Structure prediction request, 260 residues.
Amino acid sequence: MFSTKTIEMKSATELAVMRRAGAILAEALEAVVRAVKPGMATVGLDRVVVSELSRLGAKPAFLGYRGFPASLCVSVNDAIIHGIPSSAVLRDGDLVSLDLGCLYEGFYADMAATVGVGRLTPEAERLARTAREALDIGIAAARPGARLGDVSAAIQAHVEGAGFSVVRDFVGHGIGRALHEEPPVPNYGKAGTGPRLAPGMVLAIEPMINAGSFEARTLQDGWTAVTKDGSLSAHWEHTVAVTAQGPEILTARQGRTATW
Ligand code: MG
Prediction:
């Protein structure tokens, strides 16, 4: 999964390109979120990604990646990640994780958000909010001089403190000229361990959390990962640069105060 054991450090020039890639991706995700409504087929959301990225001058990163058949992963309710867009229609109360990536001028950006269709149950709402908070907390821990395990441990503590579990089978990753680079970024681990973070590292931090057990299984389509116990799952992700000034969210929408 990871191209090299070396963490690729990005120059200021490369970061500027990645910042643009991230802003494009954030804009595409915003269009997808606007399209989420009862009666929408998940393949319709994929079409939004294709047209938005094309309009913005970027290529979908997931289409054809290791054979993935679409540009967007749509993971509904008990699906954790890698859901394949289909004719299946969204219904009121569904919890929908949207994960997308793009390639722009040789660099990748990767992000995910979990949103509700119509009205969510309080439990689903709390799960999605906790995943989002865990992402924010993980990002805040990605300071130069900190250890990667500080990020992992902060995410795990927040999620488990809320009574939810952290998925073990899938993790975040470095990102740059490859979609998946070193190092793996688990959402569980020990503070004070792992590589020391330094300016120029870019990490895709992506907590995947379940309402029940952390165990996952893959559906017969070969892609969709679901919770083994059928409980709900949520996923948030940002592409984050470690800078001398602290963590910078590259997938933030430009000109907005919200983080996507
Ligand atoms: Mg990712």
